[in-house]
Amino acid sequence: MTPAERTSLPQSDAIPPELATRIVDLDAIRRNVQRVRAITGTPMMAVVKADGFGHGMLEVADAVLSAGAEWLGVATVDEAIVLRDAGVTAPVLCWLADPWTDLHGAVARGVTVSCANRQTLRAVSTAARATGVQALVQLELDTGMSRGGSPTLDWDELCVDAVMAEADGSVRVTGLWSHLALAADPAPTATEAQTAAFERGVATARSYGLRPDLVHLANSAGALEHPHTWFDLVRCGASLYGIETVADRRHGLEPAMRVVSRVIQLRRVAPGTGVSYNHAWVADRHSTLVLVPVGYGDGIPRGLSHGGEVVIRGIRHPVVGAISMDQLVVDVGDHPVALGDEVVLLGSPAAGEPDAQEWAAVTGTIAHEILTGLGGRMARRHINKEQGTAL
Ligand SMILES: Cc1ncc(COP(=O)(O)O)c(C=O)c1O
Fold first, then answer.
1. Based on the domain organization, do 207 and 272 belong to the same domain?
2. Structural Rg of the chain based on CA atoms
3. Per the CB 3.0–4.6 Å rule, which of 123, 177, 282, 293 could disulfide with 99?
4. Is 247 exposed, middle or buried (0-12, 13-18, 19+ CB in 10 A)?
5. Which of 216, 220, 235 to mutate to test the pocket of ligand 1 (most atoms within 8 A of CB)?
6. What CATH number has the domain bearing residue 367?
7. Which residue has the higher pLDDT, 8 or 331?
C-alpha cells in the first residue's frame, strides 16, 4: 500500500451512507415467477410470508402480482391484513389462525382463512356472524407432513362442520389444500403417496357436499419437479427468491437479494498475528486484513467464520477469525484493496459470488433461514420497483 493509497478516498457520493445494504431486484423475482409459470402452466399462489422471505413483503407482493401470480399466501392473519391495508385486492390465504386469533379484521377484509380443526372453523364462523361478512375458508388436510393440517382421522368431522357452516351462510369453503414434506427429493414415491392421500381427502370432502373452487398441494419443489401435484394452483415461496430446493437440480432461478458492505479499515499483519475473539485464526504469512462492518447482529451467521467467503474487486477472499456481532475480518493477502471498496457478501453465483445456498452449505442450514435471518441494522433497497403495477 503506497502512502497515496492510504490517504486517497473515493468520492463520497459514490458510496452509500449506510454501512451495509440488502439490494432486492424485483425484476429477478418477476423472472422467477415467469420461469415457474413456464414449467407448470398453472396458476400460482406466491408465498410472501416472513416479510417476503426477508425481501420485503409489500414490494414482493407488488412484483409477483405484476408478473402474473394470482394469489398471495402468508402464515399469519396480521401479515394478510398488512397486505390488504396496503391496497392488495388479490386473493390472500393465511394458514396460521387458531381459535384465539382475532379474525374479525381478516374476515371483514375478505382474507381467506385456513382451518385445520373444528375449533378454528367455529371461530371463523363466529367472526363472520359478528362482522356480517361471509368468511372465505380453505381446509387443510395433513397428507404426510405431520405438521399442520387436519389429521386424516379428524377430516370427516371437519368437512361435516364446514358443510353446516356453509348451510348457515357464515362461511364459504373456497379451497382444500395440503403441504408436501418430501418434494425436494427428485424420486417421486413419497410425493406420489401424499398426492394419493390428498385426492382421497378431496373426494371425501366432495362426498359431504363441499364444492371448493381450488385444490392445491405443490410447493416450489412440487411445482418444479412433480407435475401430479399441480392441481389448480401451485404455492411457491423459495423458487421466487431464487432458492433451488430440489437436490442437484437447477431450474434457472435467480437469487433476488444482493448484500453489500464496504471496507472500513485495512491492516497489514505479520505471521503469527491472531485475529478476533479467541484468536481462532492466526496469520501464517504477511497479509492484508480488511474490516467489514456487519456481523451476526445483522444476520450474518457466525458459522461463516470458517469457510465463508466474500468478493472484493471481483476476487473471492476468506472470512477469518470469529465473526462478531457487528464486524467481520477478511484476509485479502497481497491483493490491492482500498478503504471504501465494495464487499459483496451475497450476490450472483453466475458471477462467481456467494449466494444464500452457499452460506447454507457452509453453515449447515437452508437458504430460507439465511434469507429470513438477514436484517438487523442493514438497510434494504429495492431496484426495478417502478414496473410493479399491482399495488
Ligand atoms: C404452507 C406453505 N405452503 C407453501 C410454502 C412454500 O414452500 P416453498 O418455499 O418450498 O415453495 C410454504 C413455505 O414456504 C408453506 O409453509
1. no
2. 24
3. 123
4. exposed
5. 235
6. 2.40.37.10
7. 331
Query: Does residue 296 carry a catalytic annotation?
Result: no
Given the residues 208, 277, 296, 385, select the one marked as catalytic: 277
DSSP-H helix ranges across 109-150:
118-131
Domain boundary at 200, 232, 264, which?
A: 232
Could you give the angle at the alpha carbon of 374 between the alpha carbons of 302 and 34, nearest 5°? 130
Using a pLDDT cut of 70, give the percent of the chain over it: 95
Span 296-324, pLDDT tens digits: 999 999 999 999 999 999 999 999 999 99
Element (H, E) at 87: none
Spacing, Cα 234 to ligand 1 middle (Å): 10
Domain that holds residue 355: 3-21+256-383
Which cell is 251 given? 431450474
Residues 85 and 191 in one domain: yes
Cβ atoms of 321 and 308 within 8 Å: the answer is no
Annotated active-site residue 385? The verdict is no
Is residue 176 within 8 Å of residue 205, measured between CB atoms?
Answer: yes
175 and 115 in a single domain? The answer is: yes
pTM: 0.95
